[in-house]
Amino acid sequence: METKEKAQQLVDKFYNLQSSIAWTTNDELKRQASIFNDELGEDVEIYWDKLAKQTAVIAVDEIINQCWDYREIDLEASYNYWHDVKQEIINLLNNK
Fold it and tell me: 3-class DSSP state for residue 89?
């Protein structure tokens, strides 16, 4: 896969999260979010687009930093580390 295609794929994955998130919250927060979305109008799409791109850059920065460290670390240990990091993020999602 070409770098431009991979970049777009990553951005698309983050962008598509907006429609897949189960927004479980109280009615007042839903009302406030609805007002916010109404105020932004079409700008809400610009917001999600920029957020997706910024999130993709953060993810790639982490990969770049890890690649630099590969010369000094055990790949299995690195895999286990990132698997554990992923699990901690999932825990944060579930615990809010």
Answer: helix
Q: For residue 60, is pLDDT > 80? A: yes
The SS3 assignment for 26 reads coil
Query: Does pLDDT of 61 surpass 70?
Result: yes
What pLDDT score does 70 carry? 66
CA atoms within 13 A on the CB side of 10: 18
Whether residue 71 is predicted with pLDDT greater than 60 in this model: the reply is yes
Amino acid at 93: L
Tokens 């982490």, residue located: 62
Q: Which ranges in the chain belong to alpha helices (H)? A: 3-20, 27-40, 43-69, 75-95
Dihedral sign (CA 2, 81, 21, 55): negative
pTM beyond 0.70, yes or no = no
Neighbours of 52 (CB within 10 A): 19
